[in-house]
Structures are given as C-alpha cells and as structure tokens.
Specification:
Layout (H helix, E strand, L loop, with lengths): L6 H4 L3 H11 L10 E3 L10 H5 L6 E3 L1 H10 L10 E5 L4 H14 L2 E4 L1 H10 L16 H4 L5 E2 L16 H13 L2 E5 L11 H12 L3 E5 L1 H9 L8 E2 L4 H9 L3 H4 L3
Parallel strand pairs: 1-2, 3-4, 3-6, 4-5, 6-7, 7-8
Helix pairs in contact: 5-11, 8-9
Length: 259
C-alpha cells in the first residue's frame, strides 16, 4: 500500500531494490520490464525505489515528472522579467536557500508567513508573541538587498502575527500587476488558525494576472485545491519538499538516477 512501510525502502537497501526489480524482470535481463518514475513529490528522497531501482531496469521519466521539471525550471532558466517570487511558510531552514538564490535571480522577493517575523525582528520591529527562529541565518546581510520586500503591517507586544494586513496586500498587488513571472511557495499567514484571508486574496490576484504563474508547496496547493482554482494558474506543482529542493538545487536524487 505504501512502500515506505518497508525498512529497505527508507534505508535505500540495494537488495530491496533488486527484489522490486525482479517482480517485473525475474532474470534482470533488461528485457522483461521497465521503470517509470512519475512521482515528483518523493523524488527528493534517496530511497530504494527512487534512486537504486533504476539501476536494475531500463528507466524513464513519467509525463507528470517531465511537466514538473519543465515548468519549475522556468524559475531559473530563460526566466521572464519582471520576476516576482512570493515565499511564505514557517520552516526557515528549508526556505533560506531559496531566499538567497532568488534574491539573485528574481526582481522582487516578497517574504511572508512566519519567515517574515525573523526579518521584521532583525529590523527592530515589534513581533509580539509571534513565531521566530532561534537562529539568525545571516538575516541582517539579506536586509541590505533592495529586492527584498517585507510586510508593512505591524503589531503590539501582546499580539501574534497570523496574516499580512491590507497595506501589505496592496503593496504585493502592485508588484503582481507589473510581473511577467510569479513563483509562489508557502502561505502568507497561519491559515489553519484563521490567517488565510490575505493568501486567498493574493491567489485571486495572481490568477487574474497576465503573468506566468507557478504555484508550489503542500500548504499553498492545498488551499488552491480547497478554492477549486487548480486551473487558474499556469502550473501547480504536486511537490512539497521536492519542489523546494528542485527550486533550490535545479535537480533531485530521483532525476539524477534517470540520467
């Protein structure tokens, strides 16, 4: 039902991978079966069925995997400009490589969600009881970059930031209007606790814009699905961690295994 229930899968055990291969090619002759990876969302994992199984069978990329690579590559190959990157969510450690990379590649990088709290705190603004990271990640140096755009709505000491406010939405709306490519990963508020309104408004603005729009990240895509807007964007990625890793590194273990 789920191959990750097997220890050999997670440990990337060659014996387990060979056992899987023999299910379709008992003699491993290379004639009886083929391997197709159409699971982009797990292709960032170095598991047996992703990186070792392809060694034992003729291996190919599936149609969805090809679509993911082709569309997400627009973020760093022959990119349209002005290019707006909207980044939200809460996991600073996984998002920092993206912030650093796209401050070089994009024209504007809007940081929202809990990620913005660290930047705002570093600038000396009040973040109240909001979630902040224990590490500084070299934020002060990044604040010097003029491409970085942060929320401009602030709070009091006894408050918690759950969403970006109307002023920030208006600022972001103006950037959306002038952009030809919009890449978005991660919600702009704590949507599970009632902080989804701004994200919904911005999703509608992006959907109505003339820009090429690429949406990724599990939470963002879940909201897109809930709003039944999957067909309103140029491309909606099926990946969560895989999308982050591909945007940051330009490849994944599962893709390298098919080379």
């Amino acid at each position: 039902e789920n191959i990750r229930k097997f220890r050999g899968e997670i440990k990337n055990d060659p014996a387990f991978a060979k056992k899987l291969a023999k299910m379709v090619d008992p003699t491993l002759s290379g004639r009886a079966g083929i391997y197709v990876n159409d699971a982009f969302s797990v292709s960032h994992r170095e598991h047996a069925s992703i990186v070792t199984l392809p060694r034992y069978l003729p291996s190919f990329a599936g149609f969805q995997l090809e679509k993911e690579v082709e569309n997400l590559s627009h973020a760093f190959k022959k990119t349209k400009h002005p290019f707006l990157f909207i980044l939200g969510g809460a996991k600073f450690s996984t998002k920092m490589p993206l912030i650093k990379k796209y401050l070089k590649l994009a024209d504007y990088v809007f940081v929202g969600g809990a990620l913005a709290n660290d930047f705002l705190k570093a600038k000396g603004y009040e973040v109240g009881k909001s979630l902040v990271s224990d590490n500084n990640y070299g934020i002060r140096e990044l604040l010097k970059n003029k491409k970085l755009v942060l929320p401009t709505d602030f709070i009091k000491k006894d408050e918690i930031i759950l969403d970006i406010g109307s002023e920030s939405v208006a600022n972001l709306a103006s950037l959306i209007k002038k952009s030809k490519l919009i890449l978005w990963n991660g919600p702009l508020g704590k949507y599970e606790d009632g902080g989804a309104e701004a994200t919904k408004k911005i999703l509608k603005l992006v959907a109505d814009s003339k820009a090429e729009s690429i949406i990724g990240g599990g939470d963002t895509v879940a909201l897109v699905s809930k709003m039944k807007m999957e067909n309103k964007f140029s491309f909606v990625s099926t990946g969560g961690g895989a999308t982050l890793d591909f945007l940051a590194n330009g490849t994944l273990p599962g893709l390298k295994a098919l080379e």
